[in-house]
Amino acid sequence: MKLYDAPWAPSPRRVRIFLAEKGVVIDREHVDLRDGEHLRDAYLRINPRGAVPALELDDGEVLCESAAICRYIEALYPEPSLFGADPLAIGRIESWTRRIEGDGYAAAVYAFRNRSPAFVDRGLPGNWPPVAQIPELAARGMVMWDGFVSALDERLADRTWIAGGGYSFADITALVTIDFAKSAAKLSVPERAKHILRWHAAATARPSAAA
């Protein structure tokens, strides 16, 4: 297998953290997003969407989308389980992963894509015709972010990890989201969100966070 990766992008990082937690090593090929390599013919033949990551299997089939890649790896290497080992754990992890993606990550992307001069006419990631920025979406992202932070902080008030039990894919998703929001979208976690800050310190201290 080969993983098409980009060092600073959030979605490939989610896969790298997942692989590190699993102890699985896959050959990687870096795609230079700043140079536009992801939108050139060679990479578009691998992933026509022009997005990273992409996992090329031994038979030539390509899986795109970070969550799908991680699901595939989990099926190949079930232990340690990061998507849940019983029905309730699976449901909790899936529920919180979707909420983190839909509220937190979407908020960061709205803010990042719709107010940065670097993304004029690139309101959507990947291989699209020119898409104008929408300033109202950036404003919406900031509102969504505040709501996401409040809900996640409340969730973490009485537990170590987001879905309960051990570290899971929901925690990986939240760590990548919060770090991306801070570095790219200038959306931070305020000091009042003490439970998130405690959780974030613990998640960042895991060796996998540096993957």
UniProtKB/TrEMBL annotation:
It comes from Sphingomonas qomolangmaensis. Residues 1-81 form the GST N-terminal domain. PANTHER family: GLUTATHIONE S-TRANSFERASE GSTA, GLUTATHIONE S-TRANSFERASE-RELATED. InterPro entries: Glutathione-S-Trfase_C-like (IPR010987), Glutathione-S-Trfase_C_sf (IPR036282), Glutathione_S-Trfase (IPR040079), Glutathione_S-Trfase_N (IPR004045), Gtt2-like_N (IPR034345), Thioredoxin-like_sf (IPR036249). This is Glutathione S-transferase N-terminal domain-containing protein. The lineage of its organism: Bacteria, Pseudomonadati, Pseudomonadota, Alphaproteobacteria, Sphingomonadales. Pfam families: GST_C_2, GST_N_2. Residues 86-211 form the GST C-terminal domain. It comes from the Bacteria.
